[in-house]
Amino acid sequence: MRIFYTDTFPIPLPENHSFPKDKYYLLRKHVSERLCDKPIDLQIPEISSVESILRAHDVEYVRRLFEGELTDKEIRRVGLPWSPQIVKRTLYSVGATIAACRAAISDGVAVNLGGGTHHAFRDHGQGFCWLNDSVIAARAIQAEGLAKNILIVDCDVHQGDGTAAIARDDPTIFTFSIHGKHNFPYHKETSDLDIEMENGMDDRTYLDALEKGLSASTHRFNADLVIFLAGADPYRKDRYGRLALTKVGLAQRDGLVLRHFKESGLPVAATMAGGYAPDIQDIVDIHLQTIGIALECYDENRTQTDGWKRKG
Ligand SMILES: [Zn+2]
Fold it and tell me: Is the pTM of this model over 0.70?
């Protein structure tokens, strides 16, 4: 299973910044150590092209982002300091989601060890997100003729507001977001399907709602490819989560999503999205669960006599 990583391109942050950037490096380390006996293929992706980015973003915003001309206010809204290095990292991170989509179409499932920057809007960034990798990747895959209809399943605890806004009038992208009702972003956009969770929701309530959302999404939309944002922040100990999911519940979530689409014969590209538990190992553990379940699906595809074949 192809797993794309970009942590080798540093994110320069001041000491004590709240963003847990080390999770990316630690996740790759644990993947390569703990899953070394599994069929994993860790790769650095190609950088995203500007042409791809401009299918989802405003040309003037992208120019100012590249050239360091964003205002202090715009940069504060993202919450990460601007630097040429962070732009480079972002381009690789977007490239990783595009690469994971391509790999998923050929292999059934693939992973980006980052990505899920769903708060980026067409003409501005926010909430640790500069560019919207999901929409950029969806449209790149469409432009390459590899898929027509893309379903974005966003299980990060925060609503995929940027994704919903950019894809609002695009009938070829269906956005499903399951998220905390009383959490950032406080102004919600309208996804094709939104499911809102009250504070403190537990595993059972969440999983029941998710299952209904998955069925509704596949019923309403005839997808060729799924992009799955497997955020670690619905976890009960997450600093910004406000829900009460356990690690077991999060593994069940990943199983529900990945099995649902495997049974439908749909390829899935998984991205990691948010995760802010005080103990960084918790974040890594939750992402490792996602990758482990994706690997099970990959293995089953591989061992089928006719290999991975979409039911299409
Ligand atoms: Zn989040």
Answer: yes
